[in-house]
């Protein structure tokens, strides 16, 4: 009787394990299968397959080896909400206001940052040229607010940016970009 009850409890789990959530990308399932590595997708975020592919190709062209598991998403949610979500999921508590870490030599595990879209995207031109990818980087105009969430042993690092420059469409997008990558 005990075996029958145990078996009945495991059947739903076995079925769920094989199902693929609509929020989980092929990149996550392929790259993390059997590795014990978990990508947590922000609720309601949408996968950006073209940017994920471009990022993978760019990283592969830079170092000549297969890129690490990664996925790119975006969401309408504010960068602060997304940063708080990931900081809590990773057990970091609050997101620090910046990378200074209260004058510590080490950066906090979760912190806000800001930058200039033109400056940050200008460095991508040589890589895009190498890939033969045409993008109008002159349209990367404005500043952004972002956050950096450090990786955990079984979870990827997360980089957030709002707004972001969509290289595939050569336009600034007023949504929060979520880049998850294994370091």
Class by alpha and beta content = alpha+beta
Query: Main beta sheet: strand number and arrangement?
Result: 6 strands, antiparallel
- Any idea what the shape is? globular
Q: Structurally, how many domains make up the residues? A: 1
What is the averaged pLDDT score?
Answer: 80
Quote the distance from N terminus to C terminus: 47 Å
**Roughly how many Å is the radius of gyration?**
19 Å
Unreliable stretches: 1-25
Number of helical segments with 4 or more residues: 6
Instruction: Classify the beta-strand content into a percent band.
Output: 15-25%
Number of strands: 8
* Biggest β-sheet: strands ordered side by side in the sheet: 1-2-8-5-4-3
The H-and-E topology, N to C, reads as HHEHEHEHHEEEEE
Helix content: 25-40%
């Amino acid at each position: 009787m005990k075996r029958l009850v145990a078996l009945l409890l495991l059947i739903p789990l076995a079925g769920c394990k094989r199902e693929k959530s609509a929020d989980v990308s092929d990149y996550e399932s392929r790259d993390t299968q059997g590795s014990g590595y978990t990508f947590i997708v922000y609720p309601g975020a949408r996968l950006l397959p073209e940017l994920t592919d471009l990022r993978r190709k760019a990283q592969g062209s830079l170092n000549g080896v297969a890129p690490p598991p990664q996925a790119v998403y975006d969401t309408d949610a504010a960068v602060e909400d997304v940063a708080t979500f990931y900081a809590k999921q990773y057990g970091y508590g609050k997101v620090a206001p910046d990378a200074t870490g209260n004058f510590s030599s080490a950066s906090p595990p979760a912190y806000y940052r800001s930058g200039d879209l033109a400056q940050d995207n200008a460095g991508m031109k040589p890589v895009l040229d190498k890939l033969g990818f045409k993008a109008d980087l002159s349209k990367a105009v404005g500043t952004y607010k972002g956050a950096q969430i450090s990786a955990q042993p079984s979870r990827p690092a997360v980089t957030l940016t709002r707004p972001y420059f969509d290289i595939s469409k050569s336009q600034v997008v007023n949504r929060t970009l979520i880049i998850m990558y294994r370091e």
